[in-house]
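INSTRUCTION: Work out how this chain folds

Token vocabulary: learned, describes local backbone geometry

RECORD BEGINS BELOW THIS LINE
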Amino acid sequence: MKLSNVIRRTSAALAVGAMSLGLVTVTGGAAQAIASCTGDVSIYGTLSDGRLTYTQIEPNTGDRAKTLIGPDLGFTPKAMATLNFNTVLVTSTAGDLYRVDVQTNNTSLTLAGVTKIWDGGWTFDKMVYDGAGHLYGTVEGQLHQYLVSQAKPSGSAHIGQHVVIDTGFVLKTLAAAGDDRIVASTSDGRLLSYKINGVNDWDRSVLKSSGWSSVDSLSSPGGGLYYGRTNGGMYWYHDSDPTDGDGSDIAYHPSDPVDASGWTQSLLSAYADNCAYVAPTPPKSVQGGTIYRSEVMTRAKNWYTRDVPYNQGASATDIEGDDLYRTDCSGFVSMAWHLTTSLTTRTLPDVSTQISKADLRPGDALNYSAEHVVLFTGWKDQDAGTFYYYSESNSNVDMEYGSASLYSGDIAGWPASSYVALRYDKIA
């Protein structure tokens, strides 16, 4: 592997001040991502001959700091998950699970030991650790989950509570993006985001509908940073908000890869808890002014938490207690958007633009102009068209948080086919 990126950019030294504070600002395109990193990104790998590799990447520049090649693991690796800075779990083609303990990865890659901690049964084709105690593996389209209770697990006493989340996880690559959050690419080129809630309970968003078919390995240290290998080159990406299920804010760096070639490892795995997402604090909106989606959701959740009673003839204050809004469905959306007054389902289109339902993002609305409006909060399964919403529904249920389908059945009691998707004209 080449170290051309180390000397390629002298401006990397300017980031030292930010790194010392643990705050790394990654820029590219229009996106602004902030990741709180404990240091350089750590990626372990295995070569085709079974030797372990270790690579450091500067998260704020994408520059590779070093690559080290260690000893042969003594077995043929099949899947890999990095638990922490010096502990890696690796399965063998024979189905055994090994713990690889790293003694040093400073100037050389030296192992403290390779220990078989499970004899048979580990047949996963992909395996990732989310940095928050959850180990995931896929086999024959099933997604499995384990709870890891020790930094240096020694077997079933420390890796347990095994469950099968669901079937249908036919994925080309797999990476952990945070606590119970997974990103993956598919052979047809999609980039997907999953939030795992429990057995048979998960949310899926399509971050990108195409363009990822050539990525044959995907890793993430968290914090919205993704590293994808394409034709032996390692490219880096950052997602301004890796929790929103929206890929429009992913920035690419095609002309500034980590390396244009040289990544020949058969397996790659990033230390998933190396970076964390730090939600920016957007400026507070004023009535009728620009508002960020995160504030829309905070305002909406406030009414839901308060369970504001439904009453077309009454009003309630917003989260600041400064402004009053009518306590019905359109008054609720007017409050969430911080409008100057409570509009109706017939007049909400005056301050918004109709969009495709497939393009809905948190803070948008679904409006049935003759009857009802709900606030879209996120996808349950974007491929299937199912989603979550807030609604000030009626005097029987008051504030409601529910899920529905865009294309069949009803949404809050009215036919899904009657709704159109609206985006507030001043949402950021």
Q: What stands out?
A: Helices lie at 4-8, 16-20, 293-306, 329-336. The first strand starts at residue 23 and ends at 28. The radius of gyration is 24 Å.
